[in-house]
Amino acid sequence: MTRDRRLYRFQSTWVLGAVIDDVFEVLVHPGEARVPNILESKVTATGRANGVGRTAVYRVRSPLLYSLQFEAVIVDVEAPTMLRSEVSGDLEGAGTYRLSSQPDGTRVDFGWLVRTTKRWMNVLAPVARPVFAWAHYRVMRTLVEAMAAELEAEIKSFDSQLVD
Question: pTM of this prediction?
Fold first, then answer.
């Protein structure tokens, strides 16, 4: 059986020096955001008070200068410890945030299982997969830095990697 080279499983983990409720709130209700050269987002549906149904369209620009656009819908929430979204567009799949309190802040574990839909990415995947993984790492690092700035919190640790 051959592995689907369009499928990416990322695991990102970071600890922010902020309380769990504040970190969770930023994840569930980030509003419209712009992180220069990396991210633009537009909320298209606010969803319920707990965040379920919140829908946003994201355009993410990688450090390699290609862009991906996708829609994310929050489909499950267990405040303040879990948030799951489903995505469609240039990426299809799902992502789950799991949060836990730590003595020095909040740990966030983000699992991201997505499939690329852009033809050029799928054609290049057998050789470019490590480069796409590096680009994902850089984008995630920048997004976590933006989250830390919004929370006025220190990044205690950060890691992001392609699992398989």
Answer: 0.94
